[in-house]
């Protein structure tokens, strides 16, 4: 069976927000191997779920024979992208940026196949940090109109709160990245979130002016969930792709607890299920929609953490909500010394220590509202204690509300 054009796949699944020369891009992606790039500034030592849509797009393109370049912006991270930001980013030191770069490079290898040059990971510090300022202004800067740059949405927003000259240079540097990649790797397509449209178009224009060649751009929608939060934002903060920051179990729980109205688009973006199956699952109604969410949670967790962790998280969720406290090894876990349990731990203290509540005062409120459970037993007294008498099969299960669980295990 003939393979579908990957552009049609991306469009059907909702990835395409804005595009330059749609028909030309579709023809290119259907007729030749295209090298494309997406950039990530290493401002943290892990990407988060908000970065996952571009990663999924790269995976689709690679599966259809195209070559991704992941730019980890060790150079641009020292400037800070003003796009979508109401204030200036915190400046990072070179050592921190490099450490973050190495962590993210390793993370991306879980999603992309770098073997044999099938994908590349490059650091734009290699060409940006060695630039001669005056030469760069004369050769590259002269191709940019200040009036046009200030008309960009990202700059207009920041003009109201204050745009630094440092940040003002960001668009020029990103455009230069595209030029460098086109020259060195025949990269002709840049993709990114829709807030990157102005930067992408600037790179396309720079390539046209300096090389008399044509380049292309695609942007993805910026996702806002039914609850009004950005994709991947949780009560605890960002939904990280690093298991040390967000456990596979918590990752699974995020997806299974999404709003019913978000299920179809999330299945389209964050799984590789055929769209016929996406349609079938998203058309389930009432209590049956839980089945669709379980598939979404399992598939999304498998892509990020692997099949074994996805199985453990699924089994843990089913056990926790169906069969009590047995067989839930995938749940977030803390070891507690037997002596500490023998002495007794205040229930408010342990809920705060595990992070099930943000503070002891929140824990006391939760108990007053009837939302605090130990081994499925509701706690009504803020002076209650967790002790050895509550250990069942070597563990104690804490629950805050209906969905947040934590497992305590006793040290040997």
Short account of what is shown:
By secondary structure, the chain is an alpha/beta fold.
Structural features, described:
The protein is an alpha/beta fold. 45% of the residues lie in helices and 15% in strands. A 6-stranded mixed sheet has the order 1-6-5-2-3-4, sandwiched between helices. Strands 9-15-14-11-12 form a 5-stranded mixed sheet. The longest helix has 17 residues, at 289-305. The model is unreliable at 84-88 and 323-327 (pLDDT under 50).
Key attributes of the depicted protein:
single chain, 412 residues, alpha/beta, Rossmann fold, Tyrosyl-Transfer RNA Synthetase, Structural Genomics Hypothetical 15.5 Kd Protein In mrcA-pckA Intergenic Region, Chain A, 3 domains, 45% helix, 15% strand
């Amino acid at each position: 069976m003939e393979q579908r054009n990957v552009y049609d796949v991306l469009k059907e699944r909702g990835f395409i927000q804005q595009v330059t020369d749609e028909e030309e891009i579709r023809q290119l992606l259907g007729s030749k191997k295209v090298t494309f790039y997406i950039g990530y500034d290493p401002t943290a030592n892990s990407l988060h779920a908000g970065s996952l849509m571009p990663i999924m797009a790269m995976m689709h393109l690679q599966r259809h024979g195209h070559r991704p370049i992941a730019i980890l912006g060790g150079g641009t991270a020292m400037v800070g992208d003003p796009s979508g930001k109401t204030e200036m980013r915190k400046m990072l030191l070179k050592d921190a940026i490099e450490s973050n770069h190495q962590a993210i490079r390793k993370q991306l290898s879980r999603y992309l196949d770098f073997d044999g040059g099938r994908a590349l990971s490059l650091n734009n510090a290699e060409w940006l940090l060695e630039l001669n300022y005056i030469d760069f202004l004369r050769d590259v800067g002269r191709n940019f109109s200040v009036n046009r740059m200030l008309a960009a949405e990202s700059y207009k927003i920041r003009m109201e709160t204050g745009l630094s000259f440092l940040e003002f240079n960001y668009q020029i540097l990103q455009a230069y990245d595209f030029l460098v990649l086109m020259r060195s790797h025949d990269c002709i397509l840049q993709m990114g979130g829709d807030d990157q449209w102005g930067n992408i178009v600037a790179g396309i224009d720079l390539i046209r002016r300096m090389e008399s060649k044509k380049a292309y751009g695609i942007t993805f929608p910026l996702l806002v969930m039914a609850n009004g939060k950005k994709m991947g934002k949780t009560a605890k903060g960002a939904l990280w792709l690093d298991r040390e920051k967000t456990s596979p179990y918590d990752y699974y729980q995020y997806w299974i607890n999404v709003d019913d109205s978000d299920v179809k688009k999330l299945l389209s973006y964050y799984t590789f299920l055929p769209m016929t199956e996406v349609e079938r699952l998203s058309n389930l109604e009432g209590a049956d929609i839980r089945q669709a969410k379980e598939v979404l949670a399992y598939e999304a967790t498998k892509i990020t953490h692997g099949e074994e962790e996805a199985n453990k998280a699924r089994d843990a969720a089913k056990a926790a909500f169906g069969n009590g406290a047995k067989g839930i090894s995938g749940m977030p876990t803390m070891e507690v010394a037997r002596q500490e349990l023998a002495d007794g731990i205040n229930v408010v203290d342990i809920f705060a220590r595990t992070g099930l509540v943000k503070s002891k005062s929140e824990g006391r409120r939760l108990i007053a509202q009837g939302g605090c459970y130990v081994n499925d037993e509701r706690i009504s007294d803020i002076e209650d204690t967790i002790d050895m008498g509550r250990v069942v099969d070597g563990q104690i299960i804490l629950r805050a509300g209906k969905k947040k669980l934590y497992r305590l295990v006793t040290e040997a």
